[in-house]
Amino acid sequence: MSLFEGITFANPNLLWLLLLLPVLPAWAIWRRRKQQGSLVVSTLGGLQHIKPAYPILRHAGTVLRLLAAALLIVALARPQSALSWEDSTTEGIDIVIATDISGSMLSEDLKPNRLEAGKNIAMEFIKGRPYDRIGLVVFSGESFTQCPLTIDHDVLINLFGDISNGMIRDGTAIGMGLATAVNRLKESDAKSKVVILLTDGSNTTGSIAPVTAAEIAKEFNVRVYTVGVGTEGYAPYPVQTPFGIQYQQVPVTIDEEALTKIADLTGGKYFRATDNEKLKAIYGQIDQLEKAKIAVTHYQQKTERFFPFALAALLLLLMDFALRQTVLKGALT
């Protein structure tokens, strides 16, 4: 990197002193002439064999002092790395993930099961959106907020990892889950407010119907992306028996009509995830669909850069001193 790359000066007016440097060699020539004497002799024959010592170094002292003076002036002007800033944009929206934790989410058509697959992929989604405020709502027979909107994604991910089936009574209250998520977003000033609603069934309980919750979301300009999780047909469901875990094939009953209507009412989109890869791809699509721009300013701290110039000046002066005390001792320089 160049020594002068990104350099500014704290005292730039001192750089005008560089214009005085041409005066130094003129003054040195004048001083040398003043110090020179004259000698009248009858003939130069006896002096012709005398040659000046080290003629190349005769003006070395002047050059070294001139360069040292220039470097000292630059050092006194205090060169610094520039305090730079830039107005850039980054992605930022308010998102609430509303996830179903009902018993059917333990079905193992996704690996290791629907609930854990949804958690793992959602946590990866969160890590990829560092500038968003994200919250978490869980629902089963009822709903509650596991984490309000936050930019502290480490806390959010820890709380996400703690959710499990059985935290609340069983059932599938899709409308309640959506309404709770919208309630978390209604006071938001963000230009883009989003709910990602993930479920594997149809609404079976709760005091708010899914479509009613969708209409509330629309009133608050909340866009809802709905995700139906589960394979086609039947899925293996673990059942505890006296002989250990046994698997039953249970029908997959996702109310795709209701989920599609919720998405359409709010300007979102409905997705169907039949395996882990499709669920991951769905989060990727949502990530690309939601791109709200916010301004971010980046600052860079100033760093003093005068030391290399001062050190170089000192070295040149030491070289000048060494020359005058050795090979040029007694000479006019």
Topology:
Layout lengths: L6 E3 L13 H13 L24 H17 L2 E3 L3 E7 L2 E7 L13 H14 L5 E7 L3 E8 L2 H10 L11 H12 L7 E7 L10 H10 L2 E8 L4 E8 L2 E8 L4 H11 L3 E4 L2 H14 L3 E7 L7 H19 L8
Parallel strand pairs: 4-5, 4-7, 7-8, 8-11
Antiparallel strand pairs: 1-2, 3-12, 5-6, 9-10
CA distance, first residue to last residue: 37 Å
CATH topology category name of the largest domain: Rossmann fold
Class by alpha and beta content? alpha/beta
Residue runs with pLDDT of under 50 for 5 or more positions: none
Explain what you see.
The protein has about 325 residues and is α/β, with parallel strands linked by helices. Helix content is about 35%, strand content about 25%. A six-stranded mixed β-sheet has the order 6-5-4-7-8-11, sandwiched between helices. A two-stranded antiparallel sheet has the order 1-2. A two-stranded antiparallel ribbon has the order 3-12. The chain starts with 6 loop residues before the first strand and ends in an 8-residue tail after the last helix.
Looking at this protein, list some descriptive labels.
alpha/beta, single chain, 333 residues, six-stranded mixed beta sheet, 9 helices, 2 domains, 12 strands, Rossmann fold, two-stranded antiparallel sheet
